[in-house]
Amino acid sequence: MSAAGSAAAGPVSARAVLRLAAPALPVLAAEPLYLLVDTAVVGRLGAVPLAGLAVAAVIFAQVTTQLTFLSYGTTARAARLQGAGRRSAAVAEGVQATWLAMAVGLVVLVVGQLVARPVAGVLGDGGAVADAAVSWLRIALFGAPLVLVTLAGNGWMRGVQDTARPMRYVLAGNGLSALACPFLVHGAGSWQGWGLEGSAVANVLAQTVVAGLFLAALWRERAAAPPDQPVRLRPELRLLRAQLGLGRDLVLRSLSFQACFLSATAVAARFGAPSVAAHQIVLQLWVFQALVLDAVAIAAQALVGAALGAGGADRARALARQVARYGLYLGVGFGILFAALSTTLPAAFTSDAAVLALVPVAWWFFAAMQPVAGVVFALDGVLLGAGDAAFLRNSTLLAAGLGFLPLIWVSLLAGWGLAGIWTGLTAFMLIRLAAVTLRTRSGRWAVTGVNVAHPA
Q1: Bridge partners of residue 191, in order along the sequence
Q2: 213 falls within a domain
Q3: Are 331 and 370 a contacting pair, CB within 8 Å?
Q4: CDD domains, alphabetically (predicted)?
Q5: What is the DSSP letter of 12?
Q6: Residue 64 domain-assigned (yes or no)
């Protein structure tokens, strides 16, 4: 066995996980935390602007969640190359992902402008909520290419086990935006601000700063690369095709997520502006805690990929057991925290009495699901790091088709409201928990080498 393989088989240090997870936590939390700030700022405008933000934010989320292969797929490929001692090749994966990000982002911008009105009309059930959503969305779409460049940048940097620079980049951009948002929305002095549209402008400002920093980092990597291992900046069709192959499975998986969350928002909107606004508050908290739990999973992606690239299947399996425990501990902690804050935290986002009266319907589902979410997201990270995208695609489609979607639409027909929507989310998470636990225990995902195919 090679030296790399022997080292990979040894015990896994908790410090190695925390070294990557600690800086990843602010990166993962920054965007949903900013959205929480955005929700609180816009919430002071009233129920209709907040409901409009809820609809528009779900539509815009397609940019990040539907195209996560630019991040997760790049991490999986770059981490294996880093583990094999080929850093320049790992960075080259980031270059190609960035080209894809810019090309796809321009398509999203153009198509998004064309479909913003009809899509917002369907999800917002027409009227004032749809109008508010369109006004926000048309501005926010100019940030789409920038968001995708940031996804690609996070992907390759995680792959080379550098989570510190992404933390600095994302905090710089989002911090600037969080400071600008209240001013742009509500104004100051005699200026009344831009209202809901001001929050979209603040979003684009943040995305411009962060994407620029990631592009500069690629340029510096090119300059620092050894002459015999150059980092080429031009597009390479071979690498682009390979990334798209992995991306296909991750896109299909993301489609199932989006079918669920778009359906949930659409159903909530049918029960009125207070329902969709209450759903928005709890959903944004869900997104926030989910990505915080993913901090450990990000470390797992990088370490599992590197271990498998170096031939260390035993080390990868040990990491899987560790991150499952860490995810459970964090999930239990979040559950206790949100249960304790059930009567105080919702008031930070809105003063509308009708909205606050509906929040508890979803809140207790949200709090009770935290331990389940902690394990699911952690093991998702393990399997993503191993490049086991086909299994994740199939299991997520199964959970959506059998759990979430049937209950969502039955809740509309039966008038169950938010209780039906969040019952569907609970079923979705429990099916995923069973699937990823069984897959991880099987060990079939722990395939070593740089370029591998996973068994079904």
Answers
A1: 188
A2: yes
A3: yes
A4: MATE_DinF_like (cd13136)
A5: P
A6: yes
